[in-house]
Amino acid sequence: MTPPGRAPAPHRRRRAYGAAAVTVIFLSPLLLLLTGSLREPGQPPVIAPPLIPDSVGTAAYDQAIHEGDLVRAAANSMIVAAVGVPLSLLVASLAGFALTQLPRRVTATVIALSMLAMTVPATALLLPRFVLFRTLHLTDTLVPLIAPALIATSPLYPVIYYLAFRAIPADSYDLCRLADLTPMQTWRRMALPQVRPVTAGLAALTFVLTWSNVLDPMVYLYDRAVFTLPLALRALAAMDPHNQPVFLAAAVLTTLPALLVIGVAQHRFLHAYGPEGAP
């Protein structure tokens, strides 16, 4: 007899096979990226790196770190992510919880406006934002890269939190009212802990978007000392566009933090909503 909340063995096997197939599909480009980075620098470019290079070495990594100034660029990217991601989640969760406290008609209007705001192309906002930051003398600093977190990075994030908070049983909110908790206390003590998987997913998404953001740094940053990793990669590719191993080594180092964050978020999400952890 199958235990409650646990899928039968054939279904688990099919899910495992499906997960393995998806893993192979998505890991294949990463494997080629890794093997290409292990080739010796200075070799002629190839259409696709061989699965097993003729000569394996880490010289491309040393060259990428020194020529691309990746350590300083990684520190700048980490500052942007360390400040921007928590700030974005804080604003989004507060806005999403506030929507649950408003009348339904007002909430529907705010959500409709949020969806409308998502239709505005990001490039349409570059010029007014550039003029604003230029007037405030904030260009060539990391502030313009962190500033979108003040509005939750995306209008979609508060809506996601709103839906998550709405899924909490009404009895939990009634108990908080009986305990004479303020809305802020209810948000912090009861609501936010119950949507941790949503927070983990949005944190991973925000980190990846922030970590890989290349358009905003290209607009606001000019001094190499404040380059983030995407700009450092672009500068490294411009130095010697034919030196593939060096560029691929830099790409591997840039990709690893994002993969780590996604893996941790996926583990937290599956632990909460997987077959064995489903509520």
TrEMBL record:
The keyword Transmembrane applies. CDD domains: TM_PBP2 (cd06261). The chain crosses the membrane at residues 16-35, 78-99, 106-130, 142-164, 195-214, 246-265. The keyword Metal-binding does not apply. Keywords: Cell membrane, Membrane, Transmembrane, Transmembrane helix, Transport. It is found in: Cell membrane. InterPro entries: MetI-like (IPR000515), MetI-like_sf (IPR035906). Residues 74-265 form the ABC transmembrane type-1 domain. GO terms for cellular component: plasma membrane. One of its GO terms (biological process) is transmembrane transport. Its main location: membrane. PROSITE patterns: ABC_TM1. It is a multi-pass membrane protein. Belongs to the binding-protein-dependent transport system permease family. This is ABC transmembrane type-1 domain-containing protein. The lineage of its organism: Bacteria, Bacillati, Actinomycetota, Actinomycetes, Micromonosporales.
